[in-house]
Design goal:
Shape: elongated
Radius of gyration: 31 Å
Strand order of the largest sheet: 8-9-10-7-6-22
CATH topology of one domain: Thrombin, subunit H
Strand content: 35-45%
Order of helices and strands: HEEHEEEEEEEEEEEEEEEEEEEHE
Helix content: 10-25%
Largest sheet: 6 strands, antiparallel
Number of helices: 3
CATH superfamily of one domain: Trypsin-like serine proteases
Number of strands: 22
CATH architecture of one domain: Beta Barrel
CATH class of one domain: Mainly Beta
Low-confidence stretches: 1-18, 104-110
Oligomer: single chain
Length: about 325
């Protein structure tokens, strides 16, 4: 119990051992809280029954400091005030003016970035365990007439909504990531609220420049030793050379993927889904790496770095999409 009081007593501030603080003021309430809540419930029932049409009521609730029910209307005039006071009691109401209340719904401009989505930018998505995953966007791609973009299939699940910098940007509509498959890819249809179509240029993170994609690598997917580049959210922009044009990858805690490609560039966690390209040509989508990744998300590059990626030719064929290219 409190000093100078009896357990269960509510007269704490009157006891000699616990003087009343100066900032506490006791006031008399004209109306019991339960009476005011009953009035709110009555007004709410009348609103739902369309008994108050034409009054423009936007909100109703108890205003504790004034010991009244506050009714907000969109246009304040004497007739409306009189009608409400006659029905519910002038001594219980405060009628105030307030603009219409709207749902906090995204509009085309307020809930969309003012730049187009492009390869090399991060995207995030929900995981089954309640956490948020991060991957990288690869290329702009269309499926039929629908605009969208590509990433790795092990990132977001089918029908998941993906985001970027606080904006919801797309929904997964096609996905390939299965045992003995030959790719790890997915396609997101872009949300209609975005004011720009996905860009056919890639964001090269470290140099903070954009790079156009003007063509798509065919089935041959380049030759061993050819130059190749990446752009990823975590590692940024980097270049190296192709190591293999057909390799089977046994992914830890994942499927075995055949006919993958590899290069000698280091990638980190979060780079999955990023674009693989060279000489303005789309080559593939980053899938896996031999970097040493820790549980806390930190990593270090292997002494002989390898990145494994899905060939873009296989991606287009399996997902039924067409990578969008830039024409000078």
């Amino acid at each position: 119990s409190l000093p100078g009081s009896t357990a269960g007593s509510h007269n704490y501030f009157r006891s000699p051992g616990f003087p009343r603080p100066e900032f506490v003021d006791a006031v008399s309430a004209e109306h019991a809280l339960s009476d005011l809540e009953d009035t709110v419930a009555r007004i709410t029932r009348d609103l739902r029954a369309d008994a108050l049409q034409g009054l423009g009521i936007s909100t109703v609730g108890v205003d504790v400091p004034s010991n009244r029910v506050e009714v907000a209307v969109t246009h304040l005039d004497g007739d409306i005030v009189a009608a409400l006071e006659d029905r519910y009691g002038a001594d219980k109401l405060i009628v105030v003016e307030q603009p219409e209340v709207h749902a906090a719904t995204c509009t085309r401009t307020s809930c969309a970035p003012d730049y187009p989505i492009r390869g090399g930018l991060l995207m995030y998505f929900p995981r089954e365990n309640g956490t948020t995953g991060v991957c990288t966007i690869a290329f702009s791609a269309r499926r039929g007439a629908e605009p969208g973009f590509l990433s790795a299939g092990h990132c977001a699940d089918s029908d998941s909504i993906v985001g970027h910098n606080g904006y919801l940007i797309g929904t997964v509509r096609a996905r390939e990531f299965r045992f003995n498959g030959n790719q790890d890819s997915e396609w997101m249809v872009q949300h209609a609220a975005l004011p720009h179509l996905p860009s056919r240029w890639i964001w090269q993170t470290e140099s903070e420049t954009t790079y156009p994609i003007t063509s798509v690598e065919e089935e041959s997917a380049g030759n061993v030793g050819d130059p190749i580049c990446h752009s990823g959210w975590r590692r940024g922009y980097g270049c190296g050379s192709i190591v293999s044009t057909s390799v089977t990858v046994f992914i830890k805690d994942g499927p075995t993927l055949a006919d993958m490609k590899s290069d000698n560039i280091c990638t980190g966690p979060g780079d999955s889904g990023g674009p693989v390209y060279a000489s303005n040509r789309a080559h593939g989508i980053i899938s896996a790496t031999n970097s040493h990744i820790n549980d806390d998300g930190s990593y270090r590059c292997d002494d002989v770095p390898r990145t494994y990626y899905s060939g873009i030719y296989n991606v287009e064929s399996a997902l039924g999409v067409t990578v969008q290219t830039w024409t000078y």
